[in-house]
Amino acid sequence: MDANFFIYKLILIAAILGLSLLVAMYATLLERKLAAFFQDRLGPNRAGKWGLLQPLADGVKLFFKEEFIPASADKFLYVLGPSLSMLVALLTSAVIPWGPSINIGGTEYALQVANVNIGVLYLFAIVSIGVYGIMIGGWASNNKYALLGAVRASSQMISYELALGLSIVALVMTSGSLNLSEIVNQQDGFKWNIFYQPLGFIIFLICAFAETNRAPFDLPECETELIGGYHTEYSSMKLGFYLFAEYINMFVSGAIIATLFLGGYDFPGIDQLGLSQNALAAAGFLVLFAKISFIIFLFMWIRWTLPRFRYDQLMKLGWKKLLPLAVLNIILTGFISLLMQ
Amino acid sequence: MKLTNRSKVVSDKNMTMKERLYLPAIATGMGITFMHLFKKSVTVEYPAQQRPFADVYRGHHVLKRDEQGRERCTACGLCALACPAEAITMTAAEREPGEEHLYREEKYAKVYEINMLRCIFCGLCEEACPKEAIFLTKRIVHAEYEREDFVYGKDKLVESADSDKRIDVSIRQTPQVLEFKKDNTKRHNK
To answer: Do B40 and A38 touch (CB under 8 A)?
Structure first.
């Protein structure tokens, strides 16, 4: 492992970290703008042109808010909660292939921080840690609403992780690999997994909404019943971390959906354009980014369309509908791939 | 009575397969919200953009001066008597020699206060006034931080003596009003 490789990876990590934070920042603005447009309003337009400085203003506001820790809270866990949420949100982007490999001075560099063979498993491991940030935060606040929100969050995330996992099992059966860059390469030339696994895609999409706690699965927050849910007692930048982690999660799950089902950085006909290798990498990245943007838009679109589930409906959907469907999907996939041989 | 064509007969029959799937209904809903992306915003950006008031809008009162800049109010108290919300109070005083340029008649209101939290902007004070001294205008009563600040004194009610800062209330003197005011039998303070 030479120094160049090390430096390249460091730069890539910094770039992806910066990109995640930037996208999450502007996703907050986009969310508010879209919410306004869906409701025939104007949305934030005071800070800068079209409110472009609004995320900055929000950040500054959060920084200057009083840092409040309840007297009866467990101080260590109280701080650990939001930190863990943020950490987990940022960890996931490590295994996502952001584009075809680039060529610097005759050496090939992959646009992926860690090309691990068990990429899909890594994603799963990290996603299931995600619940701890919320659970610990809600527990440490020593508040009924926060605790209820945390309990809901953990039961919801555990329930939907099952269907999420099973929908990927079917995907792995067709791709035969757990390596994310290989899964993307297999989809090259418009052979996107969404066409082979339409049911799996829908299950995965619904579970992704539940895992990121976005509407209509935002029961952990649930303003109308639980004030703020798990982050009721949080203020200042700790609250900011929780809210920000949600947007980073949205960005990352958009990247995962695009990578697993929508062909990643592949776009039909992109190889025939006659671009140089580095230009092709840039174009591939832009294509992936466009797909992610669409999924982020979809997240917001659904949030401003559908009302929140009732708790029993949520559990019924997770256990009685999605889980059997995911199992059925596995059986169908196995059956069809047997017939194809 | 049928107001719109959108009413539906409610029934508790079992849902069909399509209804139980929910996905078609979700798609319809998303279509509806998507169409709203292209609709014109209904927002009025208030301080920059103001909606027009009706000509007879009843807002912030004004105590008028006459053509020579003298206060018209003689503190007769009829407005306070007419006020259904009991928002108006006043203290009368006698005009001293040398104050003829300030007050039109021998008696004037030394203190004249309207509690804007009590006022219901009905306009009965304007109707009661025999001297055409008080009028309601198109101006908005602004928000305040303290309840006491809503008791408007003469400093806020009496219009400026400068001829170019006078408040025009001619819009309220419609022919009907003038006609009405001529007929003394219809006035409640006859």
So the answer is: no
